[in-house]
């Protein structure tokens, strides 16, 4: 049993919450600090939760609640103007307890995780605590806050895109770019029974010419709609002159509807030059920012949290050499780079940055109306899947280990099993690393 000072998690969003719950599951005490005075329930934000993310949350008692409350969408349709180019129907033959995708707003996910934190011994949460610096000390780190210093063996920085303090602690730059194009998000509550289990993507519809629209179903008859909007778009002006209502009516028709939340944002494509150095690790948006098409932001952040938690636990319990924590950077930055490469290709198709890029997009979409081969060239977002480390297809750290018999020589390990080749497999079948 590790009985030293708690690991400090900076940031109490879903990635930080996940890191805290997983560390506590490994019998490591945790202190979560967040600069906000309290939980803020704001809009849908990250809505698409992938099966492996649900599986990770299930290990801390939250996955089933999130899955049951969410919307399991089964069909993804893609349109060009008035033409449906193709659709993908998700069949599930994996035998998993969870569906491939569940849509549920980030605010509700945070509430569920808050409930699990409140019921979990060993986790303390301090709201209204701003981290001003992090310095190394023998055997750990000192976390400087506006409410005093905290001694800790490790820090997991989940402070979001503005987590400059934790990036600075490891000397990491936040390389990449910000796209100039703007996007409008609205959460609309409306009765649309023909679309309640469908994701729809529209290229160049008549009601948003030259741009695109993405529509996702959410719980409680709510739909998340993303419009690409022109430079200089003014949301308040659009509200005032009735254009926002007309924009929504072009999608929902005469149905009564309620606008639950709206915001305008730009996409970023950035990755920290290091995700871990010494005793400070970065996870989630503090480490990488990517366009949301494909749902790679929160899902990859949860995978970061899992990787960080088991490594820190193994080091603190003495089950492995402390150098096991050093490998976090190589593994999770490789995953971040792949996710950024995927989302950058998507953005290059959705919002080309050159005349030749626009010409290619127009040509592909025009041909796709009648040519099935051209449809394979359309990129509206490749859906997230856990990063597979290494070249061997099985087993790979980070992937769900397939069902198979375990040799009699396997022995029980804390939180999982060590198989004959010392592969650590959690009781739920998730590969979490190699044992000592």
TrEMBL record:
Pfam families: FAD_binding_3 (PF01494). The keyword Oxidoreductase applies. InterPro entries: FAD-bd, FAD/NAD-bd_sf, RIFMO-like. Keywords: FAD, Flavoprotein, Monooxygenase, Oxidoreductase. Residues 6-340 form the FAD-binding domain. This is FAD-dependent monooxygenase. Its cofactor is FAD. One of its GO terms (molecular function) is monooxygenase activity.
């Amino acid at each position: 049993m590790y009985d030293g000072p708690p690991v400090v998690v900076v940031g109490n969003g879903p990635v930080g919450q996940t890191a805290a719950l997983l560390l506590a599951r490994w019998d490591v005490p945790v202190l979560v600090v967040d600069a906000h005075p309290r939980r803020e329930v704001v809009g849908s934000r990250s809505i698409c939760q992938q099966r492996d993310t649900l599986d990770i949350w299930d290990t801390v008692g939250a996955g089933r609640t999130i899955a049951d409350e969410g919307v399991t969408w089964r069909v993804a349709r893609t349109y060009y103007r008035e033409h449906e180019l193709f659709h993908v129907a998700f069949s599930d033959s994996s035998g998993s307890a969870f569906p491939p995708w569940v849509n549920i707003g980030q605010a509700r996910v945070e509430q569920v995780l808050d409930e699990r934190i409140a019921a979990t011994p060993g986790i303390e949460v301090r709201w209204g605590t701003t981290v001003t610096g992090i310095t190394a000390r023998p055997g750990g780190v000192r976390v400087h806050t506006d409410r005093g210093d905290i001694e800790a063996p490790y820090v997991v920085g989940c402070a979001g895109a503005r987590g400059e303090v934790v990036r600075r602690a490891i000397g990491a730059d936040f390389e990449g770019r910000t796209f100039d194009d703007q996007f409008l998000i609205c959460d609309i509550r409306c009765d649309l029974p023909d679309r309640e289990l469908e994701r729809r993507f529209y290229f160049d519809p008549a009601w948003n010419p030259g741009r695109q629209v993405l529509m996702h179903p959410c719980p409680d008859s709510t739909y998340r709609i993303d419009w690409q909007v022109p430079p200089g778009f003014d949301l308040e002006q659009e509200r005032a002159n009735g254009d926002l209502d007309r924009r929504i009516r072009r999608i929902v028709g005469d149905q009564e509807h309620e606008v639950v939340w709206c915001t305008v944002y730009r996409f970023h494509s950035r990755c920290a030059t290091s995700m871990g150095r010494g005793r400070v690790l970065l996870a989630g948006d503090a480490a990488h920012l990517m366009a949301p098409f494909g749902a790679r932001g929160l899902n990859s952040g949860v995978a970061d949290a899992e990787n960080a938690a088991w490594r820190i636990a193994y080091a603190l319990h003495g089950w492995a050499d402390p150098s096991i924590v050093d490998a976090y950077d190589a593994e999770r930055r490789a995953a971040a780079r792949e996710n950024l490469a995927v989302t950058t290709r998507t953005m290059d198709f959705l919002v080309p940055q050159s005349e030749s890029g626009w010409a290619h997009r127009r040509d592909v979409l025009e041909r796709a109306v009648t040519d099935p081969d051209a449809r394979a060239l359309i990129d509206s977002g490749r859906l997230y899947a856990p990063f597979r480390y290494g070249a061997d297809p099985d087993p790979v750290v980070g992937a769900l280990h397939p069902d198979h018999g375990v040799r009699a020589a396997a022995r029980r390990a804390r939180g999982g099993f060590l198989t004959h080749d010392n592969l650590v497999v959690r009781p739920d079948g998730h590969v979490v690393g190699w044992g000592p």
